[in-house]
Design brief:
This protein has about 260 residues and is an alpha/beta fold. It contains eight helices and seven strands; from the N terminus they run βαβαβαβαβαβαααβ. Helix 1 (about 15-25) crosses helix 8, helix 3 (about 65-80) packs parallel to helix 4 and helix 4 (about 100-130) packs parallel to helix 5. It catalyses: (S)-acetoin + NAD(+) = diacetyl + NADH + H(+).
């Protein structure tokens, strides 16, 4: 199986993660699906394996550094190589200014920021062990490019991930390792629906109103499908992006222009 490129996707069992796993599998990658929800990850792996793909499921809490290291080792061992990591797992509680608790701060920062950092470190170690370059792809957000009301905690972690991406890109370029990020906009995922619901509840409005507060600024006039984001990740994981590093690819339908 070593002739197949190998990718690991964290938070791979649902939403953007699932769409990414399916896209990378279609692109010819053997995929390790790492998720806290092992049942969901295994069901997805079974589906891919039954349809000509190669996939394994790994239970993973990305906030646990040793567990991230072990997941990368398992992916490389079982799938025969290691070429791409997509640090996709994340949490997005609704947190207007003044509402963030120390407990929330610790949890979300551990998962989003530390989880990404542990993924960067584990992938770098593995690329070095295997004696070749690779691609590290991190999940930031449109909310990691510009501040979004009601998302104090989420935004702060997603801005941090752009910093992690840029530092790693500078350091690792001489080793043939590229490090990029993707910034989804308003995507039809369970996480986004929950954010819209919470914003609506806080304002005494309905879910549709909650979603419209986020979607009104999309130039292309529609919410993102998870597959739209997966297509951008596919580009960052493939050879056509070999000369791109330290970049944040905004896949948001034209919410932010840079």
């Amino acid at each position: 199986m070593a002739d197949k490129k190998v990718a690991l996707v964290t938070g791979g069992a649902q939403g953007i993660g699932e769409a990414t796993v399916r896209r990378l599998s279609a692109d010819g990658f053997a995929v390790a699906i790492a998720d806290l929800n092992l049942e969901g990850a295994q069901a997805l792996a079974d589906d891919l394996n039954a349809n000509g793909g190669t996939a394994i499921a790994i239970k993973l809490d990305v906030s646990d550094q040793a567990a991230v290291d072990a997941a990368v080792d398992e992916a490389a061992e079982k799938l025969g190589d290691f070429n791409v990591i997509v640090n996709n797992a994340g949490l997005a509680p609704t947190t207007p200014v003044g509402t963030v608790t120390p407990e929330q701060f610790d949890l979300v920062t551990r998962v989003n920021t530390a989880g990404t950092m542990w993924g960067v470190q584990a992938a770098t170690r593995k690329f070095r062990e295997l004696g070749h370059g690779g691609k590290i792809i991190n999940a930031t957000s449109q909310a990691g490019v510009v501040g979004n009301p009601n998302l104090m905690l989420y935004c702060s972690t997603k801005f941090a991930i752009r910093g992690i991406t840029q530092v790693a890109a500078r350091e690792l370029a001489p080793e043939g390792i590229t490090v990029n990020a993707y910034a989804p906009g308003i995507v039809k995922t369970p996480m986004m629906m929950d954010i819209a619901h919470q914003v609506a509840v806080n304002a005494g409005k309905d879910d549709e109103w909650g979603m419209s507060t986020f979607s009104k600024d999309i130039a292309l006039g529609r919410l993102s499908e998870p597959e739209d984001v997966a297509a951008g990740i596919s580009f960052l994981a493939g050879p056509d992006s070999d000369y791109i590093t330290g970049h944040t690819l905004e896949v948001d339908g034209g919410m932010q222009f840079h």
